[in-house]
Amino acid sequence: MVKPRRYFPWRLARQVFFSHFLFVVVTLVLTGFSLRYFLYTELLRSDDVHKTLARFDSYLTSLFVTVLFFAAIYLALTSRAYARPLGRMIQRARELRRLNAEVPTDELDPEELEEEPGEWTDLERALNRIHRDLRARTDDLSREREELSALIGAVSDAILAVGTDENPLFFNPQFALYFGGKEREGRRPSLSELFRSPDVLTAYRQVLATGERQVVNASLHTKASTKIPRVFSISIAPLRDNETGEVFGVVGIFHDVTELKQAEQIRIEFVGNASHELRTPITNIKGYVETLKDDFKNNRFDGAQPFIEIISKNVDRLIFLVNDLLDLSTLEQGGELAKSVVSTRDVTETALRSVETRRAARRQTIHVHHHASSLLADPRRLEQVTTNLIDNAIKYTPEGSEINVTWDHEGDAVVLKVKDNGAGIPPEHHARLF
Q1: What angle do CA 232, 215, 152 make, to 5 degrees?
Q2: Residue 124, phi then psi, degrees to nearest 5
Q3: Which of 56, 71, 328, 374 could cysteine-pair with 24, CB 3.0–4.6 Å?
Q4: Under 8 Å between Cβ of 236 and 205
Q5: pLDDT for residue 268
């Protein structure tokens, strides 16, 4: 590191030097004239007055020049010693004003300061202590700022702090990824420019006004999801001054709970659908059993066979639903698949046989294309997936239309494509399928 050039107060040194030097000159001149006058009055009684005065003037001039020479050297050293501590203090004051901790301070050791006694040196010692304390505090603040910046940057949630004027104080990279916030025309967008949601704006303003923490849920559009809003749980807290306790801003933490809300909605829908699907066959079984009980009491057995067949079909339906629930539970637990080489033709034929009745009822035509003949997969799971895809295509495709089933290669993988002319699946439901 380059050592800074030491500051020296030359103006002060010159003033001290010339003021003292002028005093010495005036003193010598007055002393010389006084001595010459005294000598002249004494020599008036002598015959050789002029010769003696000339010799005295010569001696006096030599003495005058010699004294001035040594006085100049002495005064120069004295002026420098007098001005040097002040120069160091001026340099220290400039560094304190800049608060630049990177500039090295040319401080003297305590032993060196002891060699320069006086009020200037005492003042310099005090400035040294102030500078060391201020530098230590500046270093601590800088380190804390870096730690806080690293902590905020590492948080996966979006963070936004605004002042009382609703302009951003700071935000983390995750917030910029979600909502932007970069400077526009030399300034950052305000809170009302970042959000159009009344819930968010009201919550921020209420915390600014009351100083009480709030938690709100809001659906917000992000930069990556402009069509479908994402759900955020927003915790907003006041920022207070340590000394006065006054609120100078608020900070909000945006926690993305979209997946949690979707999972909760899927769970509610699943429980409702499962309850409905299970209740229907159970209700049918219960009704036909009650009918059979009445017939048996009255010894009417002729009509029992159709009722028993209906009960059997409903029991099969219950078994099918329970198996589906067990399969879903197995998939959620992430069980291992029993993989083997499977023929795409065999899988497709099995699936087509299971949906043939529904296909024929809707007078639909299914075209199958086998560009891939086999793959490594779990046979039972693959048949289940294939059957579900073809069955959905039959349900949601108009009567008399065509359905294309294609097994194709994509790199090292085999892809099953089921194409129909139905309305398609809304984008908001894609995450539940893929």
Answers
A1: 65
A2: -65, -40
A3: 71
A4: no
A5: 85
**SS3 category, 180:** coil
Give the angle subtended at the CA of 322 by the CAs of 319 and 325, to the nearest 5°. Answer: 150
207, amino acid identity: V
Could you tell me what percentage of the chain is helix, strand and coil, using 3-state DSSP and rounding each to the nearest 5? 60, 15, 25
pLDDT digits (tens, 9 = 90+) for 176-199: 888 887 766 667 788 888 888 899
pTM for the whole thing?
0.51
What's the whole-number average pLDDT of the chain? 77
Q: 43: which 2 tokens?
A: 């020599």
| Nearest Cα to Cα of residue 414 among 379, 378, 383, 372 | 372
**Distance from the Cα of residue 172 to its chain's centroid:** 3
Contact 197, 220 (CB under 8 A): yes
Retrieve residue 298's tokens. 């009255």
Q: Which residue has the tokens 């948080």?
A: 155
How far apart, in whole angstroms, are the C-alpha atoms of residue 390 and residue 348? 9
DSSP 376: E
Q: How far apart are CA 320 and CA 233, in angstroms?
A: 40
Distance CA 134, CA 115 (A): 26
Kindly report, residue by residue over 123-158, the tens digit of the pLDDT.
666 667 777 777 888 888 888 878 777 777 777 888
Tokens 């002042």, residue located: 163
Mind listing the domains of the chain with CATH numbers? 10-133 (no CATH), 156-256 (3.30.450.20), 262-332 (1.10.287.130), 340-432 (3.30.565.10)
Report which secondary-structure segment, H or E, holds 254.
strand 247-256
Check whether 407 has a pLDDT greater than 90. Answer: yes
Confidence of residue 2 (pLDDT cuts 50, 70, 90): very low
The helix/strand/coil state of 423 is coil
Give the whole-angstrom CA distance, residue 434 versus residue 428: 12
- Tell me how far apart the terminal alpha carbons of the chain are, to the nearest angstrom: 59
Q: What is the pLDDT of residue 237?
A: 93
